[in-house]
Amino acid sequence: MTMEIDPQPLLSTRGLTKRFGGVAAVDGVDFDLTDGELRCLIGPNGAGKSTFFKMLSGQTAPTRGTISFAGRDVMRLEPHQIAQAGIGIKTQVPNVFNGLTVAQNLLVASRRNRHRMPPAEVCDTVMTRLKLNDIALREVGRLSHGERQIVELGLVVATAPRLILLDEPVAGLSDAETERTAHLIRELHSEVAMIVVDHDIPFIRMIAADVTVFHRGRILLQGPCETVLDDQQVRDVYLGRQVVQHHAT
Amino acid sequence: MSTAHYAILQKLLLTGATLLLLALPWLVNVAFLVSVNSCDIMGILALSMALVWGTAGIFSFGQSVFFGIGAYVYAIASLNMDGTAIPLLLGILAATLSAAILGYFLFYGRISEMYLAVITLTLSLLFYQLINSLSGPQARIGVVSLGGYNGIPGVPTLSIPGLSDSQLGYVPMYCVSAVALIATYAGLRMLLVTAFGQTIIAIRENEIRAELLGYDSRAYKLAIFSIGAAIAGLAGVLYASWSNFVSPDLFDLAFAGQIIIWAMAGGVGTLAGPVVGCFAIQALTTWLGTKQLTDTNIVLGLIFMLAVLFLPSGILPGLRARLVKAA
Amino acid sequence: MTFLPELLLQILHAVSALVLTSMGLAVTFGMMRVINFAHGEFLMLGGFVMIFAVRAGANFWVAMFIIAPLSLAAFGLVVERLLIRPLYGRILDSMLATWGLSLTLIGLTSTFFGYSQKGLPTPLGSFELFGHGQSYYNVFIIVITFALVIALYAFLRKTTFGLLARGTMQNAQMASAIGVNPHAIYAATFALGAGLAGFAGAVMAPMTGVVPITGLSYITQAFITVITGGANALTGTVAAAALFGLIEQGVNVFGNAVFGQAAMLATAIVLLRLMPAGITGRFFRGSL
Asked: What angle do CA C248, C254, C259 make, to 5 degrees?
């Protein structure tokens, strides 16, 4: 790996909280991600990982706490400013430009390339890398769900972000498509930090990342993928058994 | 036919229409020419709707307001000074500036689509009542009495800059309007292939994704809204020049509605669609007027209802769907 | 300070007129998410029915409370079936289609009834308030609006229909799963809105007279009131009407009527900028 890793966290949250009425969906979470790291967020339904993710992406406003990215407070930024700061987001339901072709989609994204490289070049590179050349002229609205997911991934990659947030990137994908996405993510790992939220355990094993487990709005456990998935507490949580929470560091 | 053939057909029709428009003075009598002149002017207004609604996806009832502002400012300015070049610019500027101010509140306030439609509608109604009420001796700007619901008569036609006595005759005025229509259409076509144009289209397709890529959609929408108003303002100025008269009717709801009917009848997604719809309906209305068969409102209202119920995408897209086999 | 009671009366009257003429639109908007652009014309037709019924010999109050509302409710059923039902969920399209209806109705009434104003004398006579004559009819409008709001509240909150209507509004699929026909509910709701408009038009007719374009003068304010009021038909409309009535009358004291309208619009724009879902959208989620 040729990238220099900055020891300071790239992304940091302190005391991040989201309350809906009386319920704390996310309860005072301290989270750190270093530059170039790949982290998966897992946890049963209602554990708070999706809400946490939405606060990072700017889709939901936190009730309390701070979020900083590359040393900046990013909490009160408009969505386009968060993107301009270098965070790329792939949403749960694919958000792509349905009426435009694949090539046109990528061109729009390529014009926001962080390194200001010529858009046409960036577009070509991404299309080749994601193997989208065959469907370059197809209207995205008419593509299959799997193809749309990959196109959206391409949109995010084209902007050359420093951090990519992926919300359930393999939902609804076939095994082959899931493998293809896992492969792509492993490839991207060397260039960009990533946070992935997903339920698909085999997929998470494929990308072999460090894992953070959410439970009842808090972090239960953090660590390498295999260790965490073998942990008895984590199994209990998924099976709905009562667990005594020790605060993870 | 295939998509490629349809594209060629489109180009042929466009070229044909352009040539016809330009050659018209030699082909028809003056009365007919004056009629088509008004269609050209309304066509420019239709283009502004095509841009703001069709391309940018902003449904605004307000295009007639900017049209009216352009017309009134031109009227007041040209009656107060010599020459028409500055009034022309002032008219367009006034329309653009109004749109920019309104647009700021609408887009930076992230007003939803429906409320935006309602607010622009309300503005339209308000302007109508406002201008209607500005009558009497106090309602003057310079030497011009605003005239309330009577309007302002005697508005000078455009004249050649520097020769303020030589107002344009019927044929030159027609040529100016026709060229303005063609130039605006061409200009918009070119705009839509630039990065800016492509971004506007992307924002219309999926505003969330555009923002997630770092585009400030509010700024883009404000820009396109202002450009649309400038075009509407231009049409307003030309109208005042053509009819030599402005009145609050330019702000009334029926006129605002007509613009929307043109767009819906002709096809919202295209640039040419609303222009075609405009020419078709203007021709229909004129024909009905001569027949004295029935109230125009009834016919327009029926067309409206039928169009929404059965032709939600309009004539041109419907035609295209029939002619081209899906790729 | 003797002008204060008179001002108060004027404000109450203005607010009541606003609530009355907006209520039909509020019901269809709040419960069906349909913007009925022909609402003003329903008002106008209610006025015409009222006037023609009375001239044909019907009792004034029967015409107002029974003939006008019921005729418009029936008309509303027809409109709902032909125009609204095919366009469920398409907010913009139903707005445009009802606008077409509005134009057609104006055209038809112009053709058949002509452009001259039709009117009725206001009954009930007048009284004196601190030296100025006031019409009892104005007071009647205030009272009847108050009664209407309470009646509607009771109807929508306490009766089975009200419950079904609100349930269908929130979840049509669930409603049909328990055996309720959503189409019937929507038709009845739209008819209710139309009937309310007919009633309002009948009430206002003796005061203002009716011409084919009478509806246009009500529609602006009704719209601003309903949209600013937000999703809740009753609370929202009353709240918005109170606010606007106050502002408009307040400004009118100093300027002319148009400035009152301009002030209303400015307030509406600022309010919507701060609370895009309307007054009740933010404070009264889920309740009526």
From this structure: 50
Q: Which domains does chain C have, with CATH numbers?
A: 3-282 (1.10.3470)
The pTM (predicted TM-score) of the whole model is 0.84
Cα separations in angstroms, A175 against A135, A180, B158 = 20, 9, 70
A69 CA to chain B: closest CA distance, Å?
16
Q: Do A98 and B214 touch (CB under 8 A)?
A: no
Q: Can you spell out the DSSP letters for A119-154? A: HHHHHHHHHHHTT-GGGTTSBGGGS-HHHHHHHHHH
Q: Could C265 and B123 be called an inter-chain contact, meaning their C-beta atoms sit closer than 8 Å?
A: yes
Is beta strand B245-246 parallel, antiparallel or unpaired with respect to B152-153?
antiparallel
Which residues fall within 8 angstroms of residue A214, CB to CB, at 6 or more apart?
Answer: A41, A42, A43, A47, A48, A49, A52, A220
Residue A27 CA to residue A46 CA, distance in Å, equals 12
Rounded to whole angstroms, the Cα distance separating B260 from B62 reads: 10
* C30 — pLDDT class (breaks 50, 70, 90): confident
Rounded to the nearest 5°, which phi and psi values hold at B178? -60, -45
The answer, for B300 touching chain C at a CB cutoff of 8 Å, is yes
Distance separating alpha carbons of residues B270 and B55, to the nearest angstrom: 8
Spell out the SS3 assignment of A154-182.
HHHHHCCCCEEEEECCCCCCCHHHHHHHH
| B293: closest chain C residue by CA | C111
Q: Whole-angstrom Cα distance, residue B127 to residue A149?
A: 48
Task: Check CB contact of B304 with chain C, cutoff 8 Å.
Answer: yes
A120 in Cβ contact with A168 (< 8 Å): no
Count Cα atoms within 13 angstroms, Cβ side, for B301: 22
Beta bridge partner(s), residue A211: A40, A223
Cβ-Cβ contacts under 8 Å for B296 (sequence gap 6 or more): B285, B288, B289, C107
The domain in which residue B159 lies consists of 3-325
C135 burial type by CB count under 10 A (0-12 exposed, 13-18 middle, 19+ buried): middle
| Domain count of the fold of chain B | 1
Residue in chain B nearest C227 by alpha carbon:
B115
* Crossing angle for the helix pair C160-170 and C182-208, to the nearest 10 degrees: 110
Contact criterion met (CB below 8 Å) for A53 and A61: no
* Distance, CA of A110 to CA of A157 (rounded, Å): 9
Which of B119, B288, B292, B306 to mutate to probe the C interface, most C CBs <10 Å?
B119
- Which of B195, B205, B214 is nearest residue A97 as measured by Cβ atoms? B205
pLDDT tens per residue across span B206-253: 999 999 999 999 999 999 999 999 999 999 999 999 999 999 989 887
Using one digit for the tens of pLDDT, what is the confidence trace for C175-200?
777 777 888 888 999 999 999 999 99
Are B299 and B253 contacting, i.e. CB atoms less than 8 angstroms apart? Answer: no
Nearest to C97 among B114, B119, B305 (CB): B305
Three-class DSSP category at C34: coil
Contacts of A57 in chain B (CB under 8 A): 212
Write down which chains contact chain B via at least 3 CB pairs under 8 A.
A, C
| pLDDT tens-digit series, residues A192-242 | 999 999 888 888 888 877 999 988 889 888 999 888 888 888 887 776 665
Q: Is B154 helix (H, G, I), strand (E, B) or coil?
A: coil
Coil, strand or helix at C203: helix
ipTM of model:
0.88
B313: closest chain C residue by CA: C93
**Residues of B with Cβ-Cβ distance to A108 under 8 angstroms:** 198-199, 202, 210, 213
Residue B59 sits at the chain C interface (C-beta within 8 Å)? yes
